Amino acid sequence: ELLEVGGQRVGADVEAFNPVFDVTPADLIDAIVTEKGIVERPDTARMAQLMSRKHLH
Fold it and tell me: Mind telling me which InterPro entries this protein's record contains (predicted)?
């Protein structure tokens, strides 16, 4: 939940359910698209290779 930003409470006595992120099961991900390129069938090795690129695309 995101109820505070920069040390400031978003609202007094506010109750909320606001997930900041979700988790998608890995077997449902076919590709990840980033500024550095596309990784098909992403795994640790493929993601590391992509992130080690110095240039975009």
Answer: IF-2B-related, IF_2B-like_C, NagB/RpiA_transferase-like
